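Exercise 7. Given the encoded structure of a 202-residue chain, write a plausible sequence.
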């Protein structure tokens, strides 16, 4: 039986999730801070057991925005595994994953404006929508904006809607990341490892 594996490393948390989308699904989150780079591979090896790498059909990874170093570590790990195992690698925006995580809190077709703090008082912003088919649609892709620009764009695209601010800890959304990837997997989308690129917003 084949499994999907997700890695979310864009914050100080490491989030891992694995599922065969039938009888077994499990996830785990560690608050690692700067230790993430030192212990990621050991946690990953321990986590997938008793499954083996041969059982993994695809990998999902958060591509940022978020911590530069942590995001890079997650992407490099996912790309390396995808290349070695010859399996698809699905990369999703941290903002998109968060928007999908709150899907039960919003109305169908409601516009979801999501923001994350960046450096130099700038803002990462994006706008999404949950369709009637329960799919996540991108209305405004991830952008690095000045506060005034984001205010204008969110008011234009999603007037009268609340803005959702991402939490500091994003690893908790790893199961939502895996779910988004599985939707694409079911749609027979098969991205190769080299297409999984980070979004640093620079």
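Solution.
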């Amino acid at each position: 039986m084949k499994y999907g594996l997700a890695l979310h490393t864009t914050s100080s948390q490491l989030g891992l999730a694995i599922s065969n989308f039938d009888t077994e699904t499990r996830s785990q989150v560690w608050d690692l801070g700067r230790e993430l780079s030192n212990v990621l591979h050991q946690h990953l090896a321990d986590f997938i057991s008793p499954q083996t790498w041969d059982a993994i059909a695809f990998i999902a990874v958060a591509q940022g925005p978020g911590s530069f170093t942590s995001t890079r570590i997650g992407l490099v790990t996912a790309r390396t595994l995808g290349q070695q195992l010859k399996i698809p690698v699905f990369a999703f925006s941290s903002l998109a994953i968060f928007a999908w995580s709150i899907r039960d809190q919003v109305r169908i077709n409601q516009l979801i404006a999501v923001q994350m703090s960046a450096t130099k008082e700038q803002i990462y912003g994006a706008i999404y929508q949950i369709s009637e088919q329960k799919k996540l649609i991108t209305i405004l892709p991830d952008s690095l904006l000045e506060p005034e620009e984001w205010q204008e764009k969110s008011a234009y695209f999603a007037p009268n809607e609340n803005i959702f601010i991402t939490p500091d800890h994003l690893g908790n959304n790893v199961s939502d990341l895996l779910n988004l990837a599985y939707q694409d997997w079911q749609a027979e989308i098969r991205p190769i490892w080299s297409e999984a690129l980070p979004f640093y917003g620079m």
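Remark. The beta strands are 3-8, 13-19, 25-31, 56-62, 89-92, 111-117, 123-130, 136-145, 163-165. Students should compare their own answers with the one above.
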